[in-house]
Write a structure and sequence with these properties.
By secondary structure, the protein is of the alpha+beta class. It has helices at 13-22, 53-63; strands spanning 2-9, 27-33, 40-48, 66-73, 87-94, 96-102.
Length: 109
Amino acid sequence: MKLAVCIVHSRDKGKITDELVRAGFKFTVIGSTGGFLREGNTTFLIGIEDDELDALYSVVEQNCQTREQVVNVMPFETGPQGGFMASPVKVPVGGAVVFLLPVEQFRRF
């Protein structure tokens, strides 16, 4: 048995939640925040058997695609006010990251 920790962009939360339920996965949802853009993410904790991994990967891949977003990037130290003009940059957002952790024992009460 494994614990899958799946982090997705909050825009994909509704879509992947529906598909995980439809596929019969049981999970817990935790709100989280990304580092670079400080945007909302959703973290799913999913207990899964080894033979279900391909099905989980398929659900995640079909419902969590990356997309480009335009952001204004400011340097950490801008110096005097008005000394730097922010310029828009395209960055990839979305997608998913899945961590798999071994589970020695699992009990449901």
